[in-house]
Design a protein that fits this description.
Helix content: 25-40%
Shape: globular
Protein name: Fungal lipase-type domain-containing protein
Radius of gyration: 19 Å
Biased composition (Basic residues): 326-337
Domain Fungal lipase-type: 108-266
CATH topology: Rossmann fold
Strand order of the largest sheet: 1-2-3-4-7-8-10-12-13
InterPro entries: AB_hydrolase_fold, Fungal_lipase-type, Sec_MonoDiacylglyc_Lipase
CATH superfamily: Alpha/Beta hydrolase fold, catalytic domain
Number of strands: 13
Organism: Elliptochloris bilobata
Number of domains: 1
CATH architecture: 3-Layer(aba) Sandwich
Length: 337
């Protein structure tokens, strides 16, 4: 995580990104730097060790500046990474923090895998329905992440709404996480979008930025899934509350080199699963389930000294990146033997 954060900072400096708003494509790396640093803080065992405010250095064309981040809520898991009393519990508490970041909005950052409970959550991949929308088939998501998000959903929503009320307006909401925490972040974003009562929290913009996150969406029919996701995103954006017109949500996933975590689920290539099964006991037994996990949003691959974004252009970001996903799938069909 530290290596990825340092690389993003260097790439942003070399890219000479200056004072463009953080919600534009040009500001993506700076947004990612801030959220990556907050993901670092989410690993800290106790809120008292973080402090109520911090300064995050962000590269700019003219040098470096500091962005203020104020901690407004922190949930401690109660378990250290090497805690001998760590236990396998269905009700394990996930660790996360909620910050208000100057120029960005509110940020919810989840900790990644740090104890045995987290490993159980990682491997609990059976898909479960996300809510029960009237007249529609529900989305299906990763069971382990679903359980954790449901456990803390009301707590997070209450923290966001309380800060919005204090500010007298809606603030953009970003969710972020590293590894397992990225799975929580994406699952939380989907939970918020899937319910009318919480979709309005995204009315001022924001979205999700993850680092090495596993896939969380499960569907046998990806086309129907992507259409449903786009409708949910549009409904959230239409609730308004953003400055300067209708807000645009963004969803980005950074993958560092050969990081295996984002690739454990979702591939339909038997050769890949055969290789991974040699390192992940039990994966072969759930091959059929695992390969129907689907990506959403834009993907950015950190490869050596560069960051590659397939089909990513300088045009304004398209939220869930559905157009890019369709182009990628079409390209695979054309290149298939």
């Amino acid at each position: 995580m530290a290596e990825l954060s340092a690389h993003l900072s260097q790439a942003a400096t070399e890219g000479a990104f200056d004072l463009a708003p953080l919600q534009t494509d040009e500001g993506l790396l700076r947004t990612a730097i801030v959220l990556a640093e907050l993901c670092h803080f989410a690993y800290v065992a106790r809120a008292s060790d973080i402090g109520s405010s911090t300064q995050i250095e962000v590269p700019l064309q003219s040098g470096r500046t500091a962005v203020a981040a104020t901690l407004i809520h922190f949930r401690e898991s109660g378990l250290e990474a090497d805690d001998e009393d760590a236990h396998l519990a269905d009700d394990a508490v996930q660790q996360f923090g909620v910050w208000e970041v100057a120029g960005l909005g509110l940020a919810v950052a989840f900790r990644g895998t740090a104890c045995l409970d987290d490993v159980v959550i990682d491997t609990n991949i059976a898909p479960v329905p996300l809510g029960n929308p009237p007249g529609r088939r529900p989305l299906h998501v990763h069971r382990g992440f679903h359980a954790g998000v449901v456990r803390h959903l009301d707590e997070i929503v209450a923290a966001v709404r309380a800060r919005d009320a204090a500010a007298g307006k809606r603030l953009p909401v970003w969710v972020a996480g590293h590894s397992l925490g990225g799975g929580y972040a994406n699952c939380l974003a989907l939970h918020l979008l899937a319910s009318r009562s919480t979709a309005e929290l995204f009315g001022a913009g924001g979205g999700a930025v993850t680092f090495g996150a596993p896939m969380v969406l499960h569907a046998a029919d990806p086309d129907a899934l992507f259409q449903r996701l786009r409708a949910l995103e549009a409904a959230a954006e239409a609730t308004g509350g953003g400055a300067g017109g209708r807000a645009v949500l963004q969803f980005h996933n950074f993958v560092n080199n050969a990081d295996v975590v984002p690739r454990l689920l979702g591939t339909s290539l038997d050769a890949v699963h055969a290789f991974l099964a040699a390192y992940v006991p039990g994966l072969a037994a759930v091959h059929a389930t695992a390969r129907d996990y689907r990506p959403f949003g834009s993907y950015h691959f950190v490869l050596g000294e560069s960051i590659r974004s397939p089909l990513h252009t300088s045009a304004p970001p398209t939220g869930l990146g559905l157009g890019r996903v369709r182009q990628q799938r079409a390209g695979r069909r054309r290149n298939a033997p």
